[in-house]
Specification:
The protein has about 200 residues and is α/β, with parallel strands linked by helices. It has a single domain, classed as ABC-type transport auxiliary lipoprotein component (Rossmann fold). It has helices at about 1-25, 60-75, 85-90, 105-115, 165-170, 180-190, and strands at about 30-35, 45-50, 50-55, 80, 115-130, 135-145, 155-160. Strands 1, 2, 3, 4, 5, 6 and 7 form a seven-stranded mixed β-sheet that branches. A hairpin with a 5-residue loop joins strand 6 and strand 7 (about 155-160). Helix 2 (about 60-75) packs across helix 6. The protein is globular and about 50 Å long. The termini are far apart.
Length: about 200
Amino acid sequence: MDWKVCKMSKTGLLLVAILIVIGGCGGMSPSVFLHDEYNFQYLERVAVIPFDNISSDQGAGARATRMFISEMLAARAFDVVEPGEVTKALEKHSTVRTSQLTKEQIVEIGKSLKVQGIILGNVTESSSMRSGASTINTVTMVVRMVETETGMTVWSATHTSGKKGFWASLFGTGGKSQSEVMRSCIKGVLKTLIN
């Protein structure tokens, strides 16, 4: 009798352990590029160029830019140029998308803003999908940093947040809000730059 109880307890514990492992496998890790020869210790001041939005969610680029700047300021890793100063510098270089700035324009903007790095990004996906009683919000972002001396990309990261997790699927619970998912995506991207 005791042996059967012990065997059932071990089976139950094994089942719980498997569920925990499966539940933790819902996330996707970022794709990251770091330039081998660039010394990030010289990076003190950066400018964040307004992010492009190539998703169907209107305003996702502007929301992502504001959240990204806020998270960078919270991390206290770099001095971040005020958005108004960035806008003023960009007015000289009107382009359809800020991600289409040339190397020469980036170097010139870098000099005028006195920054060592310019961060450009875009929101490639910002969507909501109904699944039963819950809503799944998903955000994908591609962000890169260009150093302003040569206009060379020294860091780039692509990250997706918001896929429905195992526990939400199992118990039918609601997912995170669109803002929470975007913030999570930004934090995932920044972790690849700021340790």
